[in-house]
Specification:
Helix content of chain B: 25-40%
CATH class of the largest domain in chain C: Mainly Alpha
Chains: A alpha/beta, B alpha/beta, C mainly alpha
Strand content of chain C: under 5%
Number of strands of chain C: 4
Number of domains of chain C: 2
Structural class of chain C: mainly alpha
CATH topology of the largest domain in chain C: ABC transporter involved in vitamin B12 uptake, BtuC
Number of helices of chain B: 14
Distance between the termini of chain C: 26 Å
Oligomer: heterotrimer
């Protein structure tokens, strides 16, 4: 890497004298209270019939720009135009009327309504035809077929997986004949197969002369789907490049402003993995500093990494024995799950989303009762559904839903850092919490874990996603846990934050914690884990050594074919 | 009717309003009011010329209806005004008026109890013109807040304060002690002191006559009665009503349903409809709203009202009603206070002084019935008849009042009209509420 | 000229402090317009409000008579709502507190005054707390809606009072005095059960108000500085996070309900001890302190210290309301003015969370306006 000659950004696609861009923003600036400039004179143009990726790290201003394009925010400066005509959206409603729709990361569907009802909710076409379920369902089915967004129009939204819900949101836009569809990091909630399906839908849409704006910070996806790429960095538009004339390293450089030292924490990657399976990557410093370059970027295959992790074969720190549990709606979702994780070991849990991963994590964390079997930490059995007991026995949990569960968003960084420790003797004198002591602790943790906030009193909801996750990690790992359950710990994070989170987990394992890493990102699991357990329909389909398995093997187990 | 009116308004609505908009009521002034009642006087105020004509020769009184005293320019009202002494006339002038204050538990526009009092207040104002300034506070809750309102009125210079609800009594007793130079009068109360007087009237006598009209009207002998609270005042009215009905139809029964509210049209409607369902063919009520009459009219039944002339609400069902005429009393009291001749008293008005007045008869009341009723009224006026003269048999068959005894209005020892707590024979229902 | 409303995530602090005052000024202007339109002298009316609630003889005392129960019920609502436990049952809890305190007061009337007072307070607290525990337990263990349960229990508590005084020969009922034969009433408490007010010249500060103010400070500190308050705040903000952190949410809900009920119950005790000295179902019911407490708490933004201020303010307003009304000033107009004030303050609070912008942008030009209107249709 870093060997490419700087070619300079390509001119931002202005050369063409063809039709006006489908959507364009010029000189758009958006400031928020507190002096944050989320967009600083951003310029962006997207043509008809193209997939245009908006690439940038978390906090680069991608979502803000799209919120402006869809009328959710008003720009402080700058102009928006659709098909060459200036527009001033006062609300998303105006934007919808202009044919521009956005599928947000946080979907806004009504759980208790059906798919069809959600699709037509708040939308009435001229003609005043009353809602006729059959007709709407037929129309939805037709659109769904054409664009490969399969979903049962009569299903209730609460019954759907996140991926399916996203399809409902897309359907909603297509049903309203969206000319421009903005997808905000659509792949974070999707399984690999679902991503493929999404991409084929996207291709179908642009073939029909629609425009898709694809927000992402994942280079492979962008390279796969985009026709052109606009890169945002720290609120500014860096440049726009043609897919054909660029490659991953150039995009990465444009995005982060410097070359990435990739693969820093990889443990079992192809090629070089066997040379430094354990110690090297685990002494990860928190942020790329340019030291110890390791493997290349290829994720094509799994090499024959060292399996010598467990030479002394200590007893498992966490042991699950024939654990069964029910899901949210009373249906059994875990069937006789038996697992063990030794101190210092990272056990990856792979599987297609919705195969019991979330419930497994919750059972261990004491947030969900198990109906059968036992969970032990060391020699102590955990009481079913006793979250406090689990915490007291040294189980740390990095939940998948970090904003909704992992933190109390309206509370300060300090308060979130003591979310569990407030019960400990050092945190209080009698009933009174010792907040100044907690603040001091918080300041030091913020430094250690690189949490970027205005101070310990900053509210967590004001932090970026990466910093929120760092708060969660700082809290969970500073307690020196014996077991760490990390569920999708890097989902939605930018490259830097992702690497950081991974290195922290690896560091915790090195200190002797037993780590369970649940992720839908197979690369991540393969890179970090010592062993990998695959969950399929609530059962352990198999446990393999990370160094000795292949993607094909894992894929077959995930698909229930092994 | 004893004035412990409730503004048990719409609590749930208040909460919802408070939650939703944050601009709910502050609890004490929930009832909407249109203020001065003269402009919204309901149909209950009959033209002065009507009442005497139909009430018949025996009760010719110049100001026999409440309406007379508010009718602008009615000479009858002017004639009834007690005269002021020259000293009083010199003392109380437009620039230095006598201040008469009224504390209402309900809204002055409630078309019932409080409204009748406010008609009385306006009669005072009309009678003395600029020499008197009348004031009122409406929707005043019973309990500690009443004491604060009295203090305010004293601060505003009130010379005499009338309270129209029994529940004000503790505050009035305390205030009478605290402010010896202010005169206090309590409607329906019992306590007296040098500057605290009591006043009310024999509504039960009117109810006896209403009961006669009902007894004459019923064909199947089943009368229903929508009653507010199981308290002596209401019980004695039902007793009198029943005895009146049975004087016309010895087999008549009066079935009672309690609403536990003075004023709540919805509950009154439910109660009345439940009685209709039980097969009664005449309805009576002791409530503040004419809802019972509307139910009766809808079912094609007859109806006796209460408090004021409510004929216009259900003309075909209308029989008659007991009404109170507070104006002349208030005018007399204010005059006495201005003249310096006011003395404490326990006033219990009746037909004689036109304090209690029967509303006009409905079209369906036969001449014979009218004659019988008027004869009883005349006997009451003459003092030769009192409904609560023994022998009176209780609901359970035991003797309530032995022969030859007449219940006193109020004594602090033993049974009185003010403390009666049992039903007479012929009432169906429990006197325990 | 256009008016834009934008969500403002974090309003500056000075604005949040200034807003209530700006809102009051706005309310004064709006009320003034209503007054002038209805033929009243606005300035004179305001002068009257001022004097009636503050400077007139007994005016300040009366203001605090009205304010005291509202302070209790306002605190009860503030503490519960703050934690997103929707206790609408302050009304019923106040009744139960009154029943409990008057029962204790009647029972122990012969004891020394301080003992009786403390016992009455305890009686009110226990009765109110137990009553609030009913919706609390149902919410915590059966996930019932505490709004409905606590609201319905208000009616039950009201009926319980009526039962004791009207429909039974209960211990609370006065069965002997002549007056009580005319109209059912409760037994009067003995002088030892009368709570002494604090006399400051002609101004009497009710003991209950002092107690409630102390409690307001304690509540403020409870929420701010204690472990329990921390759990409350986490639970209010994110129940999932609270569970995740191993907090015992059921217990905390119960505790909050109990505290809320205890406050309202103590308010009922104060009604008996400070003012009424007799269990008076009709008086308590008419006053609707429990429901008004919701308004008080909302205006105070559920801050216990602000509840003290707001309760005095609403107390003054209620007091002035009675002073203002009369033949030429219907109580409806007073209610309208009160409504305008509450609306302005709460409206101002909402606007504080958004940003109001006046701009001179031309009335554009969006080619989509028509389409938007169509979609609206």
């Amino acid at each position: 890497m870093a060997t490419h000659v700087e070619t300079g950004p390509a001119p931002a696609g202005t050369a063409t004298a063809g039709p006006p861009p489908a959507v364009a923003a010029s000189g758009v600036t958006k400031r928020f209270t507190g002096g944050v400039v989320a967009n600083d004179r951003v310029t962006f143009e997207s043509r008809r019939g193209e997939v245009h990726a908006l690439l940038g790290e978390n906090g680069a201003g991608k979502t803000t720009l799209c919120n402006i394009l869809t009328g959710l925010y008003r720009p402080d400066e700058g102009d928006i135009s659709i098909d060459g005509r200036a527009v001033h959206f006062r609300s998303p409603h105006d934007a919808h009327a202009a044919g521009i729709f956005m599928v947000h990361q946080h979907l806004s569907l009504v759980d208790s309504l059906t798919v069809a009802e959600n699709v037509v909710l708040g939308w009435s076409r001229t003609g005043g035809v009353r809602y006729s379920p059959h007709r709407v369902e037929a129309e939805i089915t037709e659109i769904a077929e054409r664009y490969h967004v399969r979903v049962d129009p009569r299903a209730r939204v609460w019954q759907l997986s996140l991926g399916e819900r996203q399809r409902v949101d897309i359907l909603k836009a297509l049903y309203r004949d969206a000319r421009i569809l903005i997808l905000d990091e659509p792949t974070t909630v999707l399984t690999p197969a679902e991503i493929e399906q999404l991409f084929s839908s996207v291709r179908e849409m642009v073939a029909g002369d629609r425009t898709v704006v694809f927000i992402s910070h994942k280079l492979p996806e962008v390279l796969e789907i985009a026709d052109r790429v606009t890169i945002l960095r720290k609120g500014r538009s860096v440049t726009t490049v043609e897919r054909a004339g660029t490659d991953a390293s150039q995009l990465a450089r444009l995005m982060v402003g410097h070359d990435l030292a990739e693969g820093r924490v990889r443990r079992a990657t192809a090629g070089s993995g066997s040379q430094a399976p354990l110690v090297g990557p685990r002494t990860g410093s928190f942020f790329p500093t340019g030291g110890v370059p390791t493997a290349g970027t290829s994720v094509a295959g799994i090499g024959d990494a060292s399996g010598a992790v467990d030479s002394p074969a200590p007893a498992p720190m966490l042991r699950l024995d024939a654990v069964c549990a029910d899901g949210d709606f009373g249906r059994q979702v875990l069937f006789d799950v038996t697992l063990g994780i030794r101190p210092g070991e990272i056990l990856g849990i792979a599987g297609v989303a919705g195969n019991g991963q979330r419930e497994l994590a919750e059972v261990i964390a004491g947030l969900r009762p198990h109906t059968k079997g036992s969970v032990r930490v060391g020699d102590e059995p955990l009481t079913s559904g006793d979250a406090r007991g689990a915490i007291e026995r040294g189980i740390a949990f990095v939940p998948e839903d970090r904003m909704g569960t992992g933190v109390s968003p309206s509370l300060s960084v300090t308060e979130n850092l003591i979310l569990k420790a407030y019960r400990s003797g050092a945190a209080h004198a009698g009933p009174v919490l010792l907040m100044s002591r907690a603040d001091a602790e918080a300041v030091s943790l913020m430094e250690r874990f690189d949490i970027r906030a205005s101070g310990p009193h900053a509210l967590v909801r004001q932090l970026s996603g990466g910093n929120v996750q760092k708060v969660v990690l700082a809290r969970e790992l500073s307690s020196e846990p014996r077991v760490v359950i990390a569920a999708s710990p890097t989902r939605g994070l930018d490259v830097g934050a992702t690497e950081y989170v991974r290195s922290v987990l690896v560091g915790a394992a090195e200190r002797g914690a037993a780590i369970m890493l649940i992720s839908e990102d197979l690369d991540e699991i393969v890179e970090l884990s010592d062993r990998i357990a695959v969950l399929y329909e609530g059962r352990v389909a198999g446990i393999v050594d990370a160094g000795r398995c292949t993607y094909e093997e894992l894929g077959l187990m995930m698909a229930g074919a092994a | 009717m004893s004035g412990t009116r409730t503004t048990r308004s719409v609590m749930a609505i208040a909460v919802i309003a408070a939650l939703a908009a944050g601009c709910g009521s502050t609890g004490t002034t929930t009832a909407p009011s249109t203020g001065t009642t003269a402009s919204v006087a309901p149909a209950s105020v009959a033209p002065a010329s009507v009442a005497p004509a139909s009430v018949a020769p025996a009760s010719v009184a110049p100001a026999s209806s409440a309406a007379a005293s508010v009718a602008p320019g009615a000479s009858a009202a002017a004639a009834a005004v007690p005269s002021l002494t020259p000293d009083a006339a010199a003392k109380w002038t437009t620039s230095h008026p006598f201040k008469a204050a009224f504390i209402y538990v309900g809204a002055a526009s409630d078309a019932g109890w409080t409204h009748a009092h406010d008609v009385g207040r306006l009669a005072v104002q009309t009678a003395f013109g600029g020499r008197v300034e009348t004031m009122f506070k409406e929707n005043v809750p019973e309990g500690p807040q009443c004491a604060q309102v009295i203090t305010q009125l004293v601060n505003q210079g009130a010379n005499i304060i009338f309270g129209t609800s029994f529940g004000f009594q503790p505050s009035f007793v305390a205030a009478a002690q605290k402010y010896p130079n202010v005169l206090f009068e309590m409607a329906t109360g019992t306590e007296q002191s040098a500057n605290l007087a009591e006043y009310y009237g024999a509504g039960e006598n009117g109810d006896y006559l209403s009961g006669m009209a009902a007894g004459a009207a019923t064909k199947n002998g089943k009368i229903g009665f929508v009653a507010p609270f199981a308290i002596p005042e209401v019980i004695r009215e039902i007793d009198a009503y029943t005895m009146g009905a049975r004087s016309m139809n010895p087999n008549a029964t009066v079935q009672v349903v309690w609403t536990n509210t003075w004023f709540d049209p919805a509950k009154e409607r439910q109660a009345a409809e439940s009685l209709v369902a039980k097969g009664v063919d005449v309805l009576g009520d002791g409530q503040d709203s004419p809802t019972t009459g509307q139910v009766a009219a809808a079912a094609g039944l007859k109806w006796t009202g209460y408090d004021s002339n409510q004929e216009s609400f259900a003309p075909n069902a209308w029989l008659t009603a007991t009404t109170y005429n507070w104006g002349p009393y208030y005018t007399r009291e204010v005059a006495a206070a201005m003249n310096g001749t006011w003395k404490t008293h326990f006033y219990y008005g009746g037909f004689n002084d036109d304090f209690v007045v029967m509303a006009p008869f409905g079209q369906s009341v036969s001449q014979a019935t009218q004659q019988a009723i008027l004869a009883k009224e005349a006997a009451m006026k003459a003092g030769t008849f009192d409904p609560f003269t023994g022998p009176i048999t209780k609901q359970d068959g035991s003797i309530g009042v032995p022969a030859g005894t007449t219940l006193p209005v109020y004594t602090t020892t033993g049974l009185s009209k003010y403390s009666i707590d049992w039903f007479v024979q012929g009432v169906i229902g429990s006197a325990k509420g | 000229m256009t008016l834009r409303i934008e969500r403002s995530l974090d309003a500056p602090r000075w604005l949040r402090v200034a807003l209530p005052f700006l809102s009051l000024i706005l309310a004064a202007i709006l009320s003034g317009i209503v007054l002038e339109l209805s033929g009243h002298d606005a300035l004179g009316t305001y002068r009257q409000i001022y004097s009636a609630s503050l400077t007139s003889t007994g005016g300040l005392t009366a203001t605090f008579v009205y304010a005291t129960p509202l302070l209790f019920t306002g605190l009860a609502v503030a503490i519960a709502f703050r934690m997103r436990v929707w206790n609408i049952g302050g009304e019923g809890q106040l009744y139960m507190g009154a029943i409990g305190a008057s029962g204790v007061g009647l029972l122990l009337g012969g004891w020394s005054q301080p003992l009786v007072i403390v016992a009455m307070m305890a009686g009110g607290i226990v009765a109110g707390a137990l009553w609030a525990m009913i919706p609390g337990v149902l919410r915590a263990y059966l996930q019932t809606n505490e709004i409905l349960v606590s609201l319905m229990l208000n009616y039950v508590a009201g009926l319980a009072m009526y039962l004791l005084i009207y429909d039974s020969q209960s211990f609370w009922r006065d069965l002997t005095s002549p007056t009580a034969l005319v109209f059912p009433q409760g037994k009067n408490l003995l002088p030892a059960a009368t709570w002494p007010g604090i006399q400051l010249g002609s101004f009497t500060l009710p003991l209950g108000f002092v107690v409630a103010t102390v409690l307001a400070v304690l509540l403020f500190m409870l929420v701010r500085a204690t472990r329990f308050g921390f759990e409350m705040r986490v639970m209010a903000d994110s129940p999932n996070a609270a569970r995740y952190a191993g907090m015992r949410t059921k217990r905390t809900i119960l505790a909050v309900m109990a505290i809320s009920g205890a406050l309202a119950g103590l308010g009922g005790a104060s009604q008996i001890g400070d003012f009424g000295h007799v269990l008076d179902p009709r008086g308590l019911e008419q006053a609707q302190y429990g429901y008004t407490g919701i308004v008080v708490a909302a205006l105070a933004l559920y801050n216990p210290l602000a509840v003290v201020i707001v309760s005095i303010f609403i107390g003054a307003l209620t007091n002035a309301g009675f002073a203002l009304q009369g033949p030429s000033f219907p109580s409806g107009l007073v209610g309208t003015m009160e409504g305008i004030i509450l609306f302005s303050v709460l409206g101002g609070e909402i606007l504080g969370r958004y940003r109001l912008r006046f701009g001179r942008e031309p009335r554009h030009v969006t080619p989509l306006d028509a389409a938007g209107a169509e979609a609206d249709a």
